[in-house]
Amino acid sequence: LCLEWNPVLPLCSFQRCEEDEAKRLLQLSKEALSQGAGEDALDQLDHNEEELILAEYESDDEKKVVSGLEEDDDDDLEEEHVTKIYYCSRTHSQLSQFVREVQKSPFGKDTRLVTLGSRQNLCVNEEVRRLGALQLINDRCMEMQKNKHGKNAPKRRVSRTVCPFYSFEQMQFLRDEVLVEVKDIEQLVSLGREAKACPYYGSRFAIPAAQLVVLPYQMLLHEPTRNAAGIKLKDQVVIIDEAHNLIDTITCIHSAEVSGSQLCCAHSQLSQYMERYRKRLKAKNLMYIKQILYLLEQFVAMLGGNVNQNPGCQAVSQTGTVLKSINDFLFQSQIDNINLFKLFGFVERYGGPASAVKTNKENQKVAGLQDFLLTLQQGSDKEGEFRHPLLLRAASPLMQIEGFLSALTNANQDGRVILNKQGTVAQSSLKFLLLNPAVHFAKVVEECRAVIIAGGTMQPVADFREQLLCCAGVDPARVVEFSCGHVIPPENILPIILCSGPSNQQLEFTYQTRDLPQMMDETGRILCNLCNVIPGGVVCFFPSYEYEKQVYGHWEKTGLLSRLAARKKIFQEPKKANQVEQVLVEYAKCIKLSRYGNAAKEGTFNKEKGCVIMVGMPYPNIKSPELQEKMTWLDKTMPRAGGQAPSRVLIENLCMKAVNQSIGRAIRHQKDFASIVLLDHRYARPAIFNKLPQWIRERTQVKAAFGSAFAELRKVRTPCILCHCSPLSSSGPL
């Protein structure tokens, strides 16, 4: 991808301007090195700090000029990859379930399968596992690897512990064992403990020879992560399961946000590093560091702050959210004359954990900047004492800076920069919002022999076809859609669209009408009547936490809640995810008031009869600046479909995806029973009705009056069930 420059400025003149600026900074860096205290100053550094000095950085373009090679010579030494299938899903538990099915299948004994995962799931070093948080585990793992390859380095303040499981011979043994017999994540971890070999790296060694690679789809969709793991997609087959939120996932992975506090912290740390070691740094490295410092100053200035002052004490004069194109942001922050590609490469190399262990002496200095920033947080720890990483939680914000710089290299039309100005500079943030997920999915579909996007509730599929495949340049003739019915017999499910309540109040939960007392009263009367004929539990989904809270409060005042509580014990879904499990345990056969976006685990209520009530339609907040920008982008880039503007189609699709994920969880097994009641007459409109899953749509009854719907439900008299629904981000679809 190339950074698209403002067409007002000719590219050739811009390049000259950029080159002149780089030469000027490089000359200033050389002059700074030649001035000041002379050689005596160089000798004042503690010899223990030698490894903190960065090796000279060369961008990829500069390496090609020097070597005359387009590719690394090491590529010829890589093990050849056999033809394979990459199977991706959303969570590790879903991957383990898939692997167990492979083990039971006729192909289990003859398939070379390897499961990939995060360090959090595969690490067998108890000292590291106890850290808990993924980032802390990653950082500690990389630190221990550097220790292994730096035994002759001078002793420093941090621990020099080496991971006993990072043994090449033992990991080769683990690789061979993995390829002999299919193992899920739990079995892989057990094997790692027995063999005293790292499952995280040992499983990666098995990728080239594997026929089936099972991995979380975040690992496959992010190209740097893909490359670091040794995943090669050329002429391979990719299956993306549970893909209903694939677009949101790609958008989230390639968006980035940095706070004013992080920007100021990074500037402070980097300034200290430069001042401490400027006499020992190469001129080119000094130039890059000065450019980063300048960028950080300008970023903070865009938030209305000053890097030399405490961000928590700097009040922002004009609060609010402002969206800018990438080019406008670069020009207004006066960084348009800096080559972000080279600068991002520098930060990528020195600012975060390396993707592979470096063994030669020069490349050990890659860690120098990271180690120095770590020492700033450690203070005056005793020699050789390791301070718990939980105390170093924000050791360096350069990882976030790296992600934001990388995002700014997207094409101008593919994203926006959001300036979110809050009360103080520390609370404010810069966020890159990806508008076109197809640019990052294009390489997957270009390289692969075939890509299968699958899921239980993929409707409506137009988003995948238009926003992902067509925008990625996929030939429409290459796209094949396949949909099948459900395993349950027709009599096991009763979907009803209810258009009016017991008092003939029309059910239409728009933003204008849903707050009316008569609408909330009618909803309560419906629930009271249904609870009279439903012996089990009822789950009631609301469009948002706020509306659920409002309705709950109204029912308390009117006494309707007491009438409900006399029939069923009432639970409310907590906002905090770590409290949901406890609510599920206590739910049993009680009523639960919930919302769209519920965090309940899939399969929590297996082989049960069930009933789900959907109150209104969960349209996203169209006042969200991110959603408005997405809608504008779609209207400019996508054709109208069926006479509807693309932005309108997006809003309806987001709503129906949440609905389908909710009601789809009511039936999970062949012998399940369920009643589904959709409370809003708008569900009967053809444009909305046709976006329900086919297996539900074929069996849905539209009831204009409450009496006929009540009679149908009395015939069934099934217990009701809590179902799982797909998360809908509070910030909309982005």
Please give a structural write-up.
GO terms for molecular function: ATP binding; DNA binding; DNA helicase activity; hydrolase activity, acting on acid anhydrides, in phosphorus-containing anhydrides; iron-sulfur cluster binding; metal ion binding; RNA binding. This is DEAD/H-box helicase 11. Residues 1-293 form the Helicase ATP-binding domain. Its cofactor is [4Fe-4S] cluster. By secondary structure, the protein is α/β, with parallel strands linked by helices. It is built from 30 helices and 16 strands. Helix 8 crosses helix 10 and helix 20 (438-447) crosses helix 21. The radius of gyration is 29 Å and the shape is globular.
Span of the ends, CA to CA:
21 Å
Mean pLDDT level: 78
Largest sheet: 7 strands, parallel
Low-confidence stretches: 1-15, 36-43, 65-76, 150-159, 353-366, 377-395, 597-607, 717-734
Total DSSP helices: 30
Range of strand content: 5-15%
The percentage helix is 40-55%
Structural class based on helices, strands and sheet pairing: alpha/beta
The value of Rg in angstroms is 29 Å
Biggest sheet, spatial arrangement of strands? 12-13-11-14-15-10-16
What is the number of beta strands? Answer: 16
Which word captures the global form?
globular
